[in-house]
Amino acid sequence: MAAGYLEILRARHATRLLVGTLVGRLPNATAAIAVVLFVRAEGGTYSLAGALAAVYGVANAVGQPLLGRLVDVYGQPRVQLPAAVAAALATTVFALSGPDPLPLAHASVAAAGLFAPPLEGGLRALWPSVLRREEQVHTAYAMDAVAQEVMFTVGPLLVTLCVSLWSARAALIVLNGVGVLGALCVVLSPPSRAWRSAPREAHWLGALRSPGLLALLAAFLFVGVALGSITVAAVSYADAHGGDAVYGWLMAALGLGALAGGGVYGARRWAGAPERRLRLLVAFLAVCYLPLMLMPGVVAMVALTALAGVFLAPAIACAFVIVDRHAPSGTVTEAFSWLVTTFTVGASVGTGLAGPVVQTGGALWGFAVPGAAGAVSLLVLAATGGVLAAPARGAVVAASSENDPNRAAEPRFSSGDRA
């Protein structure tokens, strides 16, 4: 299973780009918990902490596709590094000034979210210029999805470690400083400096002029809803079965399931069109959410939660391939950033939706939300099958070998090729 991943990591620059991207994304991955802990440490209310975390999330959802479009136009170093520095400076202002005065706190948190660099989309745009074969790019997408689960598991632990060693204020500053170093590691690499987007058609909609991409984004909005709602329903279950420790086990199991599923998915080649494969993966994802409504004892519930996560990373990895196939020429970073934004917005909607549902009907109905959201996602994919089956005209994989003078003799491949 590990052979495919080791082959990717042995490729020149691959490990540097993957690690640098993960480190550079730490401030974004830990922002919500870091902001909440800091506001509470400064004497702020939970309402204020939640509001500031929401401001960051909304600003980040707006900023990712906008910065992604700038990367496609101006290249990675000219956008990624200044954005990382701006986000770190805004976070430092918030950490030094605290939650009072409120206007400054909201403005600095909004700026931090808005300028978070689109390293996630940038890495996926770089893979085709680093790897030799299309199937390697697809394996890299799966490895990327697995690495995300690791980051979102380790990130909160790093925040709590920094808080325990120093303070919540120091955690904000240190993690953002580390994030700048991660971005610097990426943008100084030869693939990042050499990468240029394919020629693009001037259009105000950018990547969103692709019907196939719009269909994919609509489906993944509901995948995000499912994931966001589980986190709320799990809190209600944990409150009745042992408290915070049980909640921690449930969230760890969800991530472990995704790690296992992504690892298996990326370790083999898949025949056939990725659009059909995605429908199957989302169907399994929706079905595996349903057993959570049984709400058995803690041990069995942890196992069911792990099962619920198994098809998440494979579905995300498959979606990355489809983005490649449907992104209009010259918009690949923006297209990947739109997927990140849509998924994040969906998770926020799911969190907000599950709260009243749990309040009214308890954890049982809270766990019904992810199953229903998964079913809606599947319906969207089924209804738009014709659109997804025809890749956007002019869609290409993010970069060709001509972007790297050291790779000029290597074959080019198009995202229109079958997976």
Structure description:
- It comes from Streptomyces actuosus.
- Keywords: Membrane, Transmembrane, Transmembrane helix.
- This protein is mainly alpha-helical.
- The chain contains 18 helices and no strands.
- It has helices spanning 2-10, 14-24, 26-41, 46-74, 77-97, 102-114, 119-130, 134-165, 168-187, 190-194, 211-241, 244-266, 274-289, 298-309, 312-326, 332-361, 363-383, 385-389.
- It starts with a helix and ends in a 30-residue tail after the last helix.
Write a compact overview of the structure shown.
This protein has 419 residues and is mostly helical. The chain has helices at residues 2-10, 14-24, 26-41, 46-74, 77-97, 102-114, 119-130, 134-165, 168-187, 190-194, 211-241, 244-266, 274-289, 298-309, 312-326, 332-361, 363-383, 385-389. It has two domains: 13-196, Growth Hormone, Chain: A (Up-down Bundle), CATH 1.20.1250.20; 198-398 and 411-419, Growth Hormone, Chain: A, CATH 1.20.1250.
Q: In the CATH hierarchy, what is the superfamily of the largest domain? A: MFS general substrate transporter like domains
Q: Tell me the quaternary state.
A: single chain
Task: Please give the CATH class of the largest domain.
Answer: Mainly Alpha
- DSSP, total strands: 0
- Main structural class: mainly alpha
Largest sheet: none
Pfam family, one: MFS_1
Keywords: Membrane, Transmembrane, Transmembrane helix
Region (Disordered): 400-419
Protein name: MFS transporter
Main traits of this protein?
419 residues, MFS transporter, 0% strand, Growth Hormone, Chain: A, 2 domains, disordered C terminus, mainly alpha
